[in-house]
Amino acid sequence: MNDMETKDLSLNDVKHLLRAQIYVGEDKLDMTVKTGAASDLMSDMLTGRNSDAVLLTGLCNVQVIRTSIIAGVVAVVLVRGKQPTQEIITQAREHGLPLLSTPFTMFTSCGRLFSKGLRGVEEKVPAATHSR
Amino acid sequence: MPALTKSFTIKARDFAKAGESSLQIQSILKSIGFVSDLIRRISICAYEAEMNVVMHGGDGELLLTVDPQNIVLDVSDDGPGIEDVELALREGYSTATPEYREMGFGAGMGLPNIKKNADSLEINSHNGRGAHLKISFKVADS
Question: Is the pLDDT at B107 greater than 60, yes or no?
Fold first, then answer.
């Protein structure tokens, strides 16, 4: 498989591709998103290099916001139409972290962003192996 | 630069506030102007340690000390302590409850991740008498 073209997306691209509702970050729609990450495990978000990534997550609690800020995530998208509580919105707003919600599942959300050129945060991509 | 110290109180099981001290530390380090990779490593360690105290420890304290050569996080609590330090440092080992796992924690990566990101980590734990982590970072010459 040839690598498809890699492309940075804007937050506005992410919002449109995911048909997302935006709760925080209307003023940052022209911001660049360089990579994507998808996880329900906050521990994983703290072990990788997720700086400048948009995080897609099925978790919907205030720790998602705090973990994202510590990890350097630049925007959070809640999948499956999850609605953030006021506490989550307030926390995101306080730290200027864009917060969106998409009706798509995690898998579909990742696929829609990947197909438009957004890539993951892998530092080293393992060599392809062929088997017959 | 004179040494800067700042102390933060950590309350056991207070998830409404869990992580706030680490966010403040991140903000202090940014305002001093350290390089972003150092700030990232220190913030991650502070946050992992703070979440550990909230989830597993008793009430505790996080003390930040900054001097021109070193940045140190002293994290102590009066909880049950770490029963087996060697085991707790093994990736994947966790004593977290299902409740904490539902919140996205408890993958057994906390202490190993602190060790990975810090320049040195000292753990002192006495069963029933709390734990103390001394997490140190060297400030590179610039």
Answer: yes
What SS3 class is residue B52?
Answer: helix
B31-64: burial string, b at 16+ Cβ within 10 Å, e else? eeebeeebbbbbbbbbbbbbbbbbbbbbbbbbeb
Does residue A47 belong to the interface with chain B, where contact is any CB pair within 8 Å? Answer: yes
Task: Specify the number of domains making up chain A.
Answer: 1
- Give residue A6's pLDDT: 87
At B9, the pLDDT band (50, 70, 90 cuts) reads very high
CA distance A124 to B10: 37
Domain membership of residue A128 (yes or no) is: no
Lowest mean pLDDT among B42-46, B58-62, B101-105: B101-105
Residue ranges making up the domain that contains A84: 9-114
Mean pLDDT throughout A12-33? Answer: 97
With bands split at pLDDT 50, 70 and 90, how would you rate the model's confidence at A4? low
Q: Residue A87 belongs to a domain with what CATH number?
A: 3.40.1390.20
Q: How distant, in Å, are the alpha carbons of A80, A106, A112, B21, B87 from that of A101?
A: 8, 11, 15, 27, 39
Residue with tokens 């609605």: A83
The rounded radius of gyration (Å) of the Cα atoms in chain A is 15
Is A120 inside any structural domain? no
Give the closest-approach CA distance of A43 to chain B in angstroms.
5
**For residue A3, pLDDT beyond 70:** no
Residue B50's domain comprises 4-138
**Candidates B23, B36, B48; nearest CB to A69:** B23
A–B interface: beta-carbon pairs under 8 A: 63
CATH of the domain at B34: 3.30.565.10
Q: How many domains does chain B have?
A: 1
